[in-house]
TrEMBL record:
<feature type="compositionally biased region" description="Basic and acidic residues">
    <location>
        <begin position="310"/>
        <end position="320"/>
    </location>
</feature>
<feature type="domain" description="Probable sensor">
    <location>
        <begin position="26"/>
        <end position="134"/>
    </location>
</feature>
<feature type="region of interest" description="Disordered">
    <location>
        <begin position="300"/>
        <end position="320"/>
    </location>
</feature>
<protein>
    <recommendedName>
        <fullName>Probable sensor domain-containing protein</fullName>
    </recommendedName>
</protein>
<dbReference type="InterPro" id="IPR048551">
    <property type="entry name" value="DACNV"/>
</dbReference>
<dbReference type="Pfam" id="PF21751">
    <property type="entry name" value="DACNV"/>
</dbReference>
Amino acid sequence: MDEPGLQYPGEALRSWLRQFAKTPVAEPTLKLLVVLADTVFFASLGREEGEATRVRIAYHAQGLQGLQAVRETVYIGGQKGKRQAWETLPLEPKSSITDFSVEALVKLAPAAHLPRTAVVVGPREGKLRIQGLARRVEYTEFHAEGEEDVFILHAPEPGHLVVSTQGREVFRYEQGAPVPPGRRVALHDLLFHEDSAVRAALMEMCSTLVESLPKVQPLMGGNREWYVSNAVQGLIRKMAGLHHGGLIALLPKQHDVERFRTRGKYVLPPEQGSLLRQRLQRFVQARADLINGAWQAEAGKAAEEEEDPELKKAAAEHDDKVTESDFQALVESIGQFTAVDNALVLGPELEVLCAGYQIAIPRSGPPQVFEARTLQGRPGPHYPISQHGSRHRAAAVFANQHSGAIVFVASQDGPLRCLHRPPGKKKVLLWSLLLTED
């Protein structure tokens, strides 16, 4: 690239790994990653059937066999076990079709345009080859054995490149340069970490819901707060995955929620507004019945009953799966509303109020916004929110007008972001977010 300061993604990745990688990367691996990065980057500039090519590849030095050896730790029926982390679909070698090239990736990329799915690339006969497709099972909180050798290279938008490993983004390239490390916080940390100001605000606005949920053995099924954070994370992920841009606003308590309901363009009937909360409660109850019951039986605490324990366990497992599926389907449906113009608004206790809510931006413009330097919300430098379009400015206005509210915004001009003005504070804070590899 002739323009000063611009680097090809492969060069940028090499420099970044040499400077920031926690463990040194061998030169042969560096060379391979440079080739992978540049090929994915240029493939992302192509189009197939008029659509931008969103390329995702999974690289392992042993190709498909390496992915098949990765094992994920899970709890099944209260018992700790292992499962294959990647579901793979091999392809027979075929000249020009499975050769690793920009053209081949552009053609095959739509087949991998599914959550956590990638084109598998690995060495064969001394050259990089496309070896098949693979889909990662959903990530858990536990370390997966053998996944440290898997690199995911993903182009979420034309000309962008994201490199991740073990479900965590480690490198991002945009607008001809790498995004400096440390400028983004993981969405997961923002919603789940106990030190997070946003998590604290979410738990405050959903305190009654949290108290209504049954307790689940934490090491097996997550605590009650986890399920609330997970529900919000699902909505945000759906919004981000639509690649359309969107805005989700969560209101704190002590607000006239009916005012928002009446001003939204698309409104759920009042009796349906609690549906998300109700589905979550049913799901967590089923999960508690399964996990707590299995745990008590293991500890010898279950009461003697005439009914076959195995049948009871099978019924509990079925209820767990059905209620989780129903809940996730509703999250997907509600998240889809972010594709329409303006904001999806949720009230306290995850009450779904409306979609298409227009946030008026005053003539004086949006308020001042400051980058958050920490999860706790320590204010950093002033953030030029006015450089963005109306969606970002509306998010800043809403966060400023409603102390304690949480606003998530997705757009084409940058990463997912969160805005929040902590109660009793004057500054609107902004976190730029990164997503666990989806």
